[in-house]
Amino acid sequence: MKLLIRLSIFFAALSISSLPSSYSCNPKDKNTLLQIKKHFNNPKLLSSWDPQTDCCTSWTGIECTNGRVTLFSMANDDSVVGQIPDQIGDLPELRTLEMSFINLTGNIPRTITKLKHLVLIFLSWNRLSGPIPDYISELKSVTFLDISFNKFTGPIPGWLTQMPKLQTFQANNNSLTGPIPNSFGSFVGNAPNLFLPYNKLSGKIPESLSKIDFQAVVLKGNGFTGDGSMFFGGNKRTVQLDLSRNLFEFDLSKVKFGKSMALLDLSHNRIFGTLPRELTELRLERFNISYNRLCGKIPRGGQLQTFKSYEFAENRCLCGSALKKAC
Predict the structure, then answer these.
(1) Looking at the DSSP assignment, which residues form a beta bridge with residue 144?
(2) Fewest Cβ atoms nearer than 10 Å: which of 10, 80, 260, 281?
(3) 3-state secondary structure of 137
(4) Which PROSITE patterns does the record cross-reference, listed alphabetically (predicted)?
(5) What does DSSP assign to residue 24?
(6) Helix H segments across the chain?
(7) What domains are defined for the chain?
(8) Residues 260-292: pLDDT tens digits?
(9) Which residues are 272's β-sheet partners?
(10) DSSP SS3 for 80
């Protein structure tokens, strides 16, 4: 699902930024791009960036609208090494910034705050490090922020709640620490999709999150403890919830499920109780409650019958046809 979300947003941006234009590349933008090329020691990836040609029509990874650069894509070449250049902030009409699957180091420069029209940020699969800079909160038009597969440290930034258009925050596979901020109980816009798996996060989930209607929350592979039931609710529109491989401990039999739930993974926790019959009414595409402390008979009906025995395995006393174990 994460990949589908990302691809749909990225290709939508491509279609918008690549609209036909009779304008040639703005000289200031062109000069900025050439400085960026020099910053990275003229890599082969940017060999098409010839000063004698038009940057809007001939340069790899560049798209323009009315002669101004609106998309910058520099990706999939691990021979590119270095920090994000300060000059990236000198592309004032930039909407999409893609610098993924290369070897970026350091942190995100403050000059990024000059990009007031920036909507999409893809910086995954690099070696960026340090705390996530608080000045990113100044980018009020950003809808998608992906910093996954880096080496970021420090807490989850509470200022994410102050980004009014943010729809998705992906920070999986970093070294973030601490709890989910209390401020996540109130967003100035709609609650974004949160992808935070495989960090070093811990602590209890703030009760204030029970009021928030997330579409997707993935907390897999952290050290969260206590109650995780606040992510559920009969009136919520959550599609994906992955709390697996934590230390959550709550009674599943008391949980109410929203009708939109399709991807549910609660495996490898300390969840107890019985499986609610409501689960048979959901159109589940993925389901795993293995390695918990659940008991009782597995309800029959719906999509529950389509899942394998290992997705129910290693519980205290679950029984039923899925486990081929009589009750």
Answers:
(1) 120, 168
(2) 260
(3) helix
(4) PROKAR_LIPOPROTEIN
(5) P
(6) 2-17, 27-39, 55-58
(7) 29-153 (3.80.10.10), 166-171+189-326 (3.80.10.10)
(8) 999 999 999 999 999 999 999 999 999 999 999
(9) 251, 293
(10) coil
